[in-house]
């Protein structure tokens, strides 16, 4: 829980303020409403950080959520409120989320939720899981995932492109080395 850490000060406090500033109450509320629909649990769907943390901190609701998307993906859900059991639940959820297709860069670390370090990353992970839920016939949230848009170019088109020098590569028009005095010092 968040009470295990000392109060941050200085640079650490400033960094934590920046992390907390990224948190969106609207997205958190959307996520909690989606979780409520899928699990059928009567949870408070207010999007403020305190409620979001309290609803999800022990990981049991997260495990039930992924089991609703794909039954049996989390074998054992710990009901104990002991710290390591709760963190096991959160880890089981994260592993299940990866198996369901959530990219690694959109997941969070256990301490982000358990110690309330970065609740925004938890929201991002649940939003990503919400997009993936549609692939399993469940209600989804957020924008629809993009589909593959493969392009095929003819040999002629590819050869034509190799003759063009883009401006990203820079230009040396008018460049010379006049005025550069390597090794020649200024005499007084």
TrEMBL record:
InterPro entries in UniProt: Calponin-like (IPR050606), Calponin_repeat (IPR000557), CH_dom (IPR001715), CH_dom_sf (IPR036872), SM22_calponin (IPR003096)
Assigned GO CC terms: actin cytoskeleton
A Gene Ontology BP annotation from the UniProt entry: actin filament organization
GO-annotated molecular function: actin filament binding
Matching SUPFAM superfamilies: Calponin-homology domain, CH-domain
Residue ranges annotated for the Calponin-homology (CH) domain, each copy included: 25-134
Domain of life: Eukaryota
Family: Belongs to the calponin family.
PANTHER family to which the protein is assigned, alphabetical: CALPONIN, TRANSGELIN
Protein name: Transgelin
Organism expressing this protein natively: Agrilus planipennis (Emerald ash borer)
